[in-house]
Amino acid sequence: MIYYSSCAQDTEEIGRKLAARLEDEGVTHAFIAMRGEMGVGKTAFTRGFASHFGIKGVKSPTYTIVNEYAGRRSVFHFDMYRIENDDDLYSIDFDGYTAREGYIIAEWSENIDDFIPDDAIFVTILRTDGADGRKIMVE
Ligand SMILES: Nc1ncnc2c1ncn2[C@@H]1O[C@H](COP(=O)(O)OP(=O)(O)OP(=O)(O)O)[C@@H](O)[C@H]1O
Ligand SMILES: [Mg+2]
Predict the structure, then answer these.
(1) Sheet of 2-5: strands edge to edge?
(2) Which residues hold their Cβ within 5 A of ligand 2, which is an ion?
(3) How many domains does the chain have?
(4) What is the mean pLDDT of the chain?
(5) Which protein residue has the closest C-alpha to ligand 1 atom 23?
(6) Which of 5, 54, 94, 115 could be joined to 11 by an S-S link, Cβ 3.0–4.6 Å?
(7) Does the beta carbon of 61 lie inside 6 Å of ligand 1?
């Protein structure tokens, strides 16, 4: 699916729609692998996604690697920017999180390609026209 966004709020809304759709389809455990360059809106998308479950105030987990949110469902928000190898991933108990009920949404998922489950949902955000235009692909 392809969406176009012209501001951060649009991107949040597209994230929220994905969450609503997963919930409607009874998908309670999913891995969402985010792709897109720095500042493109991955955290904005995640903020919207989490808002569907009543979670507010999602912020970038860059330094902590993972932020855990408990709303109507759990959302585990990873930022893999600083993950360089398998040891880094084990040290944050990645396996533990993937086994839990809830949704994993991972920024900089390129850094953990070998660990992305086969049934993951990929969300790619690209810049389009102007400073605020974005194309968002969900597949
Ligand atoms: N269409 C848009 N969608 C999302 N964000 C937008 C859009 N237009 C402008 N922005 C701005 O771009 C920035 C996106 O920041 P955000 O933290 O979501 O990016 P990110 O991809 O998570 O970056 P990083 O790789 O550093 O984690 C915000 O300042 C936001 O206001
Ligand atoms: Mg971010």
Answers:
(1) 2-5, 134-138, 121-127, 29-35, 102-107, 74-79, 66-70
(2) 42-43, 60, 107
(3) 1
(4) 96
(5) 39
(6) 5
(7) no
First to last CA, the chain: 6
What are the residues facing 79 on neighbouring strands? 107
Residue 33 sits in which domain range?
A: 2-138
Helix, strand or coil for residue 97?
helix
Q: Over the stretch 19-51, which tens digit does the pLDDT of each residue have?
A: 999 999 999 999 999 999 999 999 999 999 999
Q: Whose CA is nearest to atom 17 of ligand 1?
A: 43
**Nearest Cα to 11, choosing from 48, 37, 36, 39?**
48
- CATH value at residue 90: 3.40.50.300
Pairwise CA distance, residues 132 & 31, whole Å: 27
pLDDT tops 80 at residue 59: yes
Q: What is the pTM of this model?
A: 0.97
Query: pLDDT tens for residues 85-99?
Result: 999 999 999 999 999
Return the residue whose CA atom lies nearest to atom 9 of ligand 1.
132
